[in-house]
């Protein structure tokens, strides 16, 4: 899937490489709201929101994963997007905001 590729009028592919080659998220928009389904951007929420530079041993390319995580967290926080993904605290959907040193996840 190519970054920016439209799957439908409301679903767009978002490049999220690093965890795996070709790792892709999906931005879903409806009614003026956006949900980014990001898969494995964050693996250890209790650590990586506050310190997004921390890599995870299972990332295929840790430097790329770190860069992607910082980019995606900033996009979600700066645009008030909801996010959903594996490894997030229950219910697995929430909003990202900027903190003093990193980011915060606020479950919905």
Please tell me about this protein's structure.
- With 108 residues, the protein is an alpha+beta fold.
- The protein is globular.
- Helices cover 19% and strands 34% of the residues.
- The model has no long low-confidence stretch (mean pLDDT 92).
- The chain has a seven-stranded mixed beta sheet.
- It contains two helices and seven strands.
- It has helices at residues 45-48, 62-78; strands at residues 6-8, 11-15, 24-30, 33-39, 82-85, 93-98, 103-107.
Average of pLDDT: 92
Can you tell me the overall shape? globular
Classify the oligomer. single chain
| Residue windows where pLDDT falls under 50 for at least 5 positions | none
Number of strands: 7
Question: What letter string, H or E per element, gives the SSE order?
Answer: EEEEHHEEE
* SSE-based structural type: alpha+beta
Percent helix, as a range, is 10-25%
Features of this protein?
globular, alpha+beta, 2 helices, 19% helix, seven-stranded mixed sheet, 108 residues, 34% strand, single chain
């Amino acid at each position: 899937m190519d970054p920016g590729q439209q799957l439908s009028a409301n679903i767009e592919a978002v490049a999220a490489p690093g965890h795996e080659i070709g790792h892709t998220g999906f931005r879903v928009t409806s009614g003026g709201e956006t949900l980014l389904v990001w898969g494995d951007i964050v693996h250890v929420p209790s650590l990586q929101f506050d310190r997004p530079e921390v890599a995870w041993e299972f990332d295929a390319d840790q430097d790329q994963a770190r860069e992607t995580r910082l980019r995606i967290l900033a996009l979600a926080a700066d645009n008030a997007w909801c996010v959903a993904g594996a490894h997030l605290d229950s219910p697995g959907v929430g909003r990202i905001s900027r903190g003093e040193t990193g980011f915060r996840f606020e479950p919905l």
